[in-house]
Design a protein that fits this description.
mainly beta; four-stranded antiparallel beta sheet; 119 residues
Amino acid sequence: QVQLVESGGGLVQAGGSLRLSCVVSGPTFSSATIAWYRRAPGKQRELVARITSGGNTNYADSVKGRFTISRDNAKNTVDLQMTSLKPEDTAVYSCNAQYWRGIYKYDDWGQGTQVTVSS
């Protein structure tokens, strides 16, 4: 199991920017797919952005062109740069790691960080 610690959340006005960071402990980081999910009040958790070990990315349609996910394998971090934020981006954002150890697939989560966008 790996440990994931998110940071960078906070309160921002609509149109502003925030940068979230996820620090992942453990030797499997470089081979893991890392994703950011979010859960807004009263809604189901949704995928925001994902980056594979090879650097391939995909985004939710609602954030394309506004959010950018990146990873630094030397620092074991994955960042989510969020721009042009909207009130509907308000949610708890959580970092997720998926990786294999032998024949077993693991799926670990961080505690989450609150992002609040005021109108």
